[in-house]
Amino acid sequence: MAALVSTTLIFRSSLRALSGCQVNRSLLLQKLSTDTPPSQNGPFRGENGGKGAAPPPHVNPDDADEELREKIFRASLMFVSKHGWTQKTLSSGAESLGLPSVAHGMFPKGGVELINFFYQDCNAQLSKQLAQKVEENRELEDSTKPSTRTFIREAVQARLHMLIPYIEKWPQAMAIQALPQNSCHALNNLGQLVDDIWYYAGDKSTDFNWYSKRLLLAGVYKSTEIFMLQDKSEDFQNTWIFLDSRFDNVEFFGKNVKKCKKTTKAVGENLWGMFLMVQNILGVNSRVR
């Protein structure tokens, strides 16, 4: 339930922040209104022939500072454990590259820009991994291919694994993301994550199921993420057990619209309505499968 409350707060604050999301919404409408797989034309990847992840969407491809910004972001991640997701971390990252500490002025929004870079970069890494898995699975006989549930479960675990190096400071990142001025990006990032996972899992739904699958997967991801922050077990074994239990408790796979609506009532009709509204406004559901 804590995760549902957290997700509700993000969606609710996103409604208040929509006026500041025009640029990001335009990007989504431009990038998602095609049937091209996200590894080639998603908002977090560039047209680079699949040769690695492209810079995240907030970086202008025509900006001469693009490469430098990304270098500072990546260098700054080394200092997150010491300074958190802060302007100080960005300054330390710049200094480690031999740049003056004032180079952090390239990031006027401060630590949240580093959070968004990290989140989007992780999404891009996962997308690349999933695309590779899909290709590998094509070579398998149907009887040996992983089920949709297994594919999605492994994708969620792989994405959560990316948080481990920063787990001590991730609660700070979540708190920063939940601020009204940042919640629009947080929603976009989470929405892109669950959409990519379902895309590579082979989802082709175009009806009410499109929303239900992504909302429920977002709930699974957020609840497991929150559990993970408190998990002291070796190699986060209790987190993966919890993740399995979350998949056991939701109706993702092969369920009809009526059953999905029934499950949604357990999540909360208020959250459901807000999710539909925000997704429609931002154009996240415009990708044609």
Account of the protein in words:
Residues 32-64 are annotated as: Disordered. Residues 32-42 have a biased composition (Polar residues). The radius of gyration is 19 Å and the shape is globular. It has 14 helices and no strands. Mean pLDDT is 76; it is low at 2-55, 267-272, 274-279 and 281-286. It has 289 residues and is mainly α. The protein has helices spanning 2-17, 22-32, 38-41, 66-76, 80-83, 87-96, 111-138, 148-161, 170-177, 183-200, 208-230, 237-248, 257-267, 269-282. Helix 1 (2-17) crosses helix 10, helix 1 (2-17) crosses helix 14 (269-282) and helix 10 (183-200) crosses helix 11. The protein has a single domain (2-53, 111-286), classed as Tetracycline Repressor, domain 2, CATH 1.10.357. Helix content is 64%, strand content 0%.
